[in-house]
Write a structure and sequence with these properties.
By secondary structure, the chain is mostly helical. It is 86% helix and 0% strand.
């Protein structure tokens, strides 16, 4: 009986220990599962955040690479071109004004010189052959016609007229003005490289002409249109240094200051 009772007690104790062990195991498993579920939730949240970020990046890349940015770029380029065209129109207007003022002075000087010759001829025998006088009158008329076309913005016709003048009257005192006028029409026609070459001839062939400062200023403007900013700065600096009292020099100084302000 004692043996049987002792065995029963031991079995009950073993059963009790087994239940406690199972309970603890279940608690550990529950806690482990809870931690696992929490970690899984955190991982899922991270994945969702990563997916959201990747989606935003993809949207940004689509904007950067897509048609929207291309349209904006095209609009920007169009605006830049419009600004460049407006600058060109302004340059033409400034050229026209400066050229008109200079030509008025030149015509006044020419008229005064002719009057003095007429006055001298009244008291002294003529020293100029008649043929030379007639030739001079023809070149003045031819230049006036070419100049009139330029003032009327008929640049192609003006270019042809100046070109014909230089071929017919290469030794005329108006040759520097005609050469400058040709370069001006080339600028107006946006033949900037040709305009630079023509104005360089004014500087090289007629170094003493009052048109040289105007030719240098015109060259600088053509260089700007071609994006040759460094060359334009040098041309403007030379103009300001060599011809500080020229009528076009204040404009050259302003233009040089504007270019130097650009990065």
């Amino acid at each position: 009986m004692l043996l049987i009772a002792s065995s029963a007690i031991n079995s009950h104790a073993a059963l009790f220990d087994d239940k406690e062990a199972r309970k603890k195991i279940l608690e550990v498993e529950a806690k482990t599962q809870s931690n696992f579920d929490a970690n899984q939730t955190a991982i899922n949240d991270l994945k969702k955040s990563q997916a959201a970020i990747e989606k935003r990046l993809a949207a940004i890349e689509a904007v950067i690479q897509g048609q929207g940015l291309a349209d904006m770029q095209n609009q920007l380029e169009a605006l830049k071109q419009e600004v460049a065209n407006l600058k060109g129109d302004l340059e033409l207007a400034n050229h026209h004004l400066e050229t008109t003022q200079q030509r008025q002075k030149d015509l006044y000087t020419d008229t005064d010189t002719r009057l003095r010759k007429i006055e001298s001829a009244a008291v002294a025998p003529p020293v100029t052959p008649v043929a030379a006088v007639v030739l001079e009158e023809k070149d003045v008329k031819a230049f006036a016609e070419a100049d009139s076309l330029s003032k009327s913005a008929k640049h192609k016709e003006a270019f042809a007229a100046f070109d014909a003048f230089l071929k017919d009257y290469p030794s005329s005192k108006l040759a520097p003005d005609a050469l400058y006028g040709m370069g001006y029409t080339q600028f107006a026609l946006k033949n900037y490289k040709s305009s630079i070459a023509t104005q360089q001839k004014v500087i090289d062939l007629h170094a003493e002409s009052p048109k040289v400062p105007d030719a240098m200023y015109s060259m600088a403007n053509s260089q700007i249109q071609l994006g040759q900013v460094t060359n334009a700065k040098k041309t403007l600096r030379d103009l300001v240094v060599k011809y500080p009292d020229a009528e076009v020099t204040p404009n050259a100084q302003k233009r040089l200051k504007m270019l130097e302000a650009l990065k």
